[in-house]
Amino acid sequence: MLPVVALVGRPNVGKSTLFNYLTRSKDALVADFPGLTRDRKYGQARRGEKPFLLVDTGGIVEEACDETGRKTAEGIDEAAMRQVDLALEEADLVLFLVDAREGLNASDEAIARRLRRIAKPILLVANKIDGINASLATAEFHALALGDPLWLAAAHGTGADKLLGEIEALLPETVEEPEGKAPDGIRIAVVGRPNVGKSTLVNRILGEERVVVFDQPGTTRDSIYIPFERNDKPYTLIDTAGVRRRSRVDEAVEKFSIIKTLQAIDRAHVVIYLIDASEGVTDQDASLLGQVLDAGRALIIGLNKWDGLSADQRQTVRRQMDLRLAFVEFAERHCISALHGSGVGVLFDRVDEIYAAGNRNLSTPLLTKLVLEAQEAHQPPLVQGRRIKLKYAHQGGTNPPTVIIHGNQTESLAESYRRYLVNFLRQKLRLQGTPLRLEFRSST
Ligand code: GDP
Ligand code: GDP
Known about the structure:
The chain is of the alpha/beta class. It has 14 helices and 18 strands. It has helices at about 15-25, 55-65, 80-90, 105-115, 135-140, 160-170, 200-210, 260-265, 285-295, 310-325, 345-350, 350-360, 365-375, 415-430, and strands at about 5-10, 40-45, 50-55, 95-100, 120-125, 150, 185-190, 210, 225-230, 235-240, 270-275, 300-305, 330-335, 380-385, 385, 390-395, 400-410, 435-440. It starts with a strand and ends with a strand. The protein binds guanosine-5'-diphosphate (2 copies). One guanosine-5'-diphosphate binds near residues 16, 17 and 154. One of its GO terms (molecular function) is ribosome binding.
């Protein structure tokens, strides 16, 4: 499981600046597609040696505030507060940011009191030390009794390497499961917002198939892996809905945790994302799907509760999907009823093929030929009188398939041209259901 680091601090201390710094990948690998809004609350840190999930609790709170930006306790909705509490509960480490320029204040002390109650490693970080005498300015934060404050200027990256080193030293080792104990077969995560029908779907899938170790002695009660077989092939469901812990489907046991959902996405080979068709695509759906895209997971979208919709409603949902989910165009959409079972078999039948697409091996001659073909059909623009030139391409990885394209001045390639290349390659390679990543290497 990805370890979790929660970012806390009063408004304006630089949490989102640090969040952006840590989650921005060193080279922009993932194209920004229309309709995709980057999540500013949850992100995977990619700067250091160890990947971890970073949660900006300030971002969660702000999102829930009204337009006037009031951050009163009443203004913060309950769901957001619950996610903040869960973030603290599920965090392996808390980064507590304070403002070295403004100095210690009452809000910092209130936050510190709350943090002292939870038994978690805490790193106190004094931000905005650029251009000031850091040791003088940060001395007073010792009063928080949380140890020596680390010095940071998030806006400039100063102190970030040291901070990353401290974070990594405190994070639990993410050991790969030992051979033989690892969950079998294709790992499938069924994810989506609360009440969209995840546990109904999981139960339906398991109910119809032979469950191998559902209640085997020795498996921990809170294990989230459910191995099963279908047509003599092993699969493992990653359970985010707490199906295992419920005795009946309608029993609401599990708190909906975005962190658990993101960890499941990270562990999965294939994500089945459920949308409640009677509600349509919500903002949270779009942002969770953005996370699936960022993680590079193969994806199938299930439009659930299709049974209860009129023809008009169905038309509306389809149109809304086309508009709002353009950034995950590669994903197949299936209209299903987890409750009645319709469409579930067909959806499941697609898992193998979509997994295979994500793991395809693509030969260097083929990729080079296609990239040159794309370039011929549509030349990259001139940059300061010189034409950007793509020369050859090879595969850099699978799951998701990653193509490395060599050329010159590729760093100047416009976003629109990268998108064109992605679409061109996807079509020619018939890559269904998986994102495709491009990386560029420039010789000049
Ligand atoms: P948040 O409310 O805690 O998320 O804070 P923001 O990240 O939005 O930052 C608040 C303000 O502080 C912004 O104007 C930032 O540009 C500024 N800021 C953030 N980090 C630094 C820093 O390292 N040095 C300086 N001088 N300003 C910073
Ligand atoms: P979860 O929170 O995502 O695990 O959602 P549940 O599986 O607990 O389902 C939430 C509610 O939606 C329950 O009352 C289900 O009976 C209902 N539900 C689930 N799937 C369907 C469906 O395909 N059609 C209809 N009409 N209701 C469904």
